[in-house]
From TrEMBL:
Role played: Catalyzes the hydrolysis of queuosine 5'-phosphate, releasing the nucleobase queuine (q). Is required for salvage of queuine from exogenous queuosine (Q) that is imported and then converted to queuosine 5'-phosphate intracellularly.
Lineage: Eukaryota, Viridiplantae, Streptophyta, Embryophyta, Tracheophyta
Sequence similarity: Belongs to the QNG1 protein family.
A Pfam family: Q_salvage
Entry's Gene Ontology BP terms: tRNA modification
Protein name: Queuosine 5'-phosphate N-glycosylase/hydrolase
EC number: 3.2.2.-
A GO molecular-function descriptor: hydrolase activity
Alphabetic keyword roster: Hydrolase
Organism whose genome encodes this protein: Zizania palustris (Northern wild rice)
């Protein structure tokens, strides 16, 4: 059994955390192993999703979450025999191929924006699906990818906040004021794309520097985990706020 679901984060409900969503899904599967089967995903309603996650009130952008669950369930059934495992097998142990398959078949994972006439592809949730498989299976079986080093960091809002705190990212005065005053940054705006894309670029430069100075080959996944862990331990960090399905 392998789960391929939509579990994206935003912070419009301060009490709804990643850990709450993850523990809710884990508990749901422990109670009912078919809870996330493709045919079930196609039929969830908002109240049923809340019950699944053991959440007492409407979720942020709940209708969109439900729509994306339906999308995943229908496409898994139509193209992969209702099994996420078949999706993974069809990638032939290639992380890049699996990301391409995910973004081709599931529009809700097409995390890209137009920036000054150029299309920028970030694919945060498609990449984190691959990384989670790699981590959960310890690089074996469904988690074996010969090109796992092609995965970048998972650009959302926590990692940029840590990079800013470390002085690696520096924002202009207007953007700094917007973030520090908790103003919303429009999804797909130049500011949002710059924050996320510059975070990816900064970590790739960190990888190069670590390799050059210490001779140590790190994966972007490793650096992302360290930065993300620092961020969740210091939730007082100011971070950009964007209501998006791609985080």
């Amino acid at each position: 059994m392998m789960c391929f679901v939509i579990m994206f984060m935003d912070d419009t409900d301060k009490e709804l955390t990643y850990d709450h969503l993850a523990s809710g899904l884990k508990l749901a599967l422990e109670k009912d192993k078919t809870a996330l089967d493709a045919d079930r995903l196609q039929n969830y309603t908002g109240p049923q999703l809340r019950q699944l996650l053991n959440w007492p009130r409407p979720l942020p952008i709940e209708e969109e979450r439900v729509r994306l669950l339906h999308e995943v369930g229908m496409e898994l059934e139509r193209s992969f025999g209702g099994e996420a495992a078949n999706l993974v097998k069809s990638a032939g142990n290639s992380a890049a191929t699996l990301i391409e398959l995910i973004t081709r078949h599931f529009p809700g994972f097409r995390d890209h924006s137009l920036y000054k006439g150029h299309q920028v592809f970030l694919y945060k949730r498609a990449q984190i699906f691959v990384a989670d498989l790699w981590g959960a299976f310890k690089g074996q079986n469904y988690g074996e990818f010969h090109d796992i080093n092609s995965i970048t960091i998972f650009a959302d809002y926590i990692v940029p906040a840590v990079l800013r705190e470390l002085g690696i990212l520096k924002y202009g005065s207007n953007l700094s004021c917007s973030i520090d005053s908790n103003s919303e940054i429009v999804p797909g705006s130049e500011e949002e794309v710059e924050i996320r894309a510059c975070s990816v670029y900064a970590v790739e430069k960190m990888r190069e520097l670590i390799n050059k100075k210490f001779g140590k080959q790190l994966l972007s996944i490793d650096i992302d985990l360290w930065l993300w862990s620092c961020g969740v331990q210091n939730m007082a960090l100011s971070h950009h706020r964007t209501l998006s399905i791609y985080y």
